[in-house]
Amino acid sequence: MDESKPQPNDDAKNTPEKSQSSPEENLKPHEVEEIDNRSIFVGNVDFSTSTEELRDVFKGCGNIERVTIPIDKFSQIPKGYAYIEFSDQSGVLKAQSLNEKSFKGRKLKVMPKRTNLPGHNKSRPRFRGSFRGSFAYGRSRYSRFRPYY
């Protein structure tokens, strides 16, 4: 074989694949909590709002590190809320003073971002088993029939 000819798919083996992970996925839990302490949740954001417009609204609160507007992955429409990360925690306190501020005809809901705790909703027992305790069990078509309790 002639070694001067490149083998097919040589470039495909050497190119790194792009990952779609967020930068917070590689951080330790205490680092994520520290970032969340410097961040705010902004609700009731107009769907046509850009990150630059939100930066302009909150620039008086402190140095802004990042503005994130989540987008629905199927319809590609913004979800109507945003997260703003400040360089220090004092920006969060100043930003809370902008709660209920009117922006593009909507009142913004500004609150500190909460840290998502994995498994937090698992304390509530899920329904398992038969339908004996449910509302529909006692209401059958035959009103004379009463099950034994």
UniProtKB/TrEMBL annotation:
Segments for region (Disordered): 1-35
Pfam families (alphabetical): RRM_1
Record bears the keyword RNA-binding: yes
Domain called RRM: residue spans: 38-115
A molecular function (GO) term: poly(A) binding
Biased composition (Basic and acidic residues): 1-16, 25-35
Highest taxon of the lineage: Eukaryota
Keywords: RNA-binding
CDD domains hit by this protein: RRM_II_PABPs
Ranges in a coiled coil: none
PANTHER family linked to this entry: EUKARYOTIC INITIATION FACTOR 4B-RELATED, EUKARYOTIC TRANSLATION INITIATION FACTOR 4B/4H
Name recorded for this polypeptide: RRM domain-containing protein
Provenance organism: Blepharisma stoltei
Lineage, broadest ranks: Eukaryota, Sar, Alveolata, Ciliophora, Postciliodesmatophora
